[in-house]
Amino acid sequence: MVVVSSNLSFSNSENILCSKKTSSNISTLCTNDTNNLYGMLLNHLDTNQEEQTIKWRNETNINSNTGNSIDDMFNQWQNPVHGKPNQCGINTEVSHSSRSAVTSYQSLNQITFTKDMLSCMQVLGQVDSKFIACLISSTTQSQNKVVVPDLLVMLDQHAAHERVRLEQYISEIFGEEVDGEVSDKVKQSEITPPLSLTLQQEDIRVMISFKHEFSRIGIKFTGVEENRNEIKLNSIPACIVEREANELKRGKNSIATQFVEELITEHVEYLKNTSGSRRRLPLALHRILATKACRGAIKFNDILSPAQCKELITALSKCDLPFQCAHGRPSIIPLFKLDSKLFQQTQVKPQLDKLRKGRPKQE
């Protein structure tokens, strides 16, 4: 039997495996005890990896060595006709360049993306079921000049779909239009019975001073005369109620109280720091919508047809911020510029002047 003190803390697996040799509380371990101890360690160091694996359709393929990549497939395939080439056709590795050289090159050869580029983007196809290879033009379109695609880019299919879904949810979180103007009031859900919440008196005073602002973001409350540190919530944002229902369906604990406290605390701090300036969508609600958009977006290893790729790019071109995902990471990256002459079919004209000069003179 192995006895481990409950107040021990370990930084990694190597520490605990080394400590079993030096600790006086643990005697020589047999094989089964060693396995049990190692299992306890893994449970102790287990962390939530949901945010790191949420963009993958099949989590078992992450960091696996099963040889499912395109390079592994070609390396294992025995071509009966042609032998393996000595080197790849295009080598984009720049191992000899230092970091300062790369930074200097990027600063001198900057590429600015615009939403107009997405409207005329040409889809080449899906790459490794993760990215979409596209051709775009790095120059602006003019009336008298035909735009030629000269830039090869990669589009992250998960980040792109995540951005499309986020902006859709942001438009749906607010109420209906009033007199043709977009409403800035967050949809709310009433709570029966009211939810009791304990806060600091200073925060409650700020909430009372900006009661109309908190009502705008979906929080309606009343004070408690018997306890100045307590308020009764009569309504909260509808997106929190929806998130609560989804978490309970998945067998998770209730999160409504935690999210409401974060929303109130952050918004009170924002109002104090900005002297009551209005923010259309609080960051706490933005995080809820970003998580929702991320969980339902297209994952890595999802196969897309060319028509689906074009449909995704069309929807992305209508977004306000198409070049970053819901969490702020880039959704598109440039690879390299292509020679425009490769896409232009020009007819070679004979050089008649040189033919006349080279013709022998008649006597």
Discrete helix count: 14
The run of helices and strands is HHHHHHEEEHEHHEEHHHHEH
Question: Can you tell me the CATH topology of the domain at 109-165 and 304-343?
Answer: formyl-coa transferase, domain 3
Number of strands: 7
- Mean pLDDT across all amino acids: 78
Query: Which class of secondary structure composition applies to the elements?
Result: alpha+beta
Q: Explain this structure to me?
A:
This protein has 363 residues and is an alpha+beta fold. Among the domains are: 1-47, no CATH class; 109-165 and 304-343, 2-Layer Sandwich (formyl-coa transferase, domain 3); 185-279, 2-Layer Sandwich (Ribosomal Protein S8, Chain: A, domain 1), CATH 3.30.1370. It has 14 helices and 7 strands. The strands form 2 sheets. A 4-stranded antiparallel sheet has the order 1-2-3-7. A 3-stranded antiparallel sheet has the order 4-6-5. A hairpin with a 6-residue loop joins β5 and β6 (230-237). The protein is extended. The model is unreliable at 1-27 and 88-94 (pLDDT under 50). It holds the Pfam family MutL_C. Residues 123-304 form the MutL C-terminal dimerisation domain.
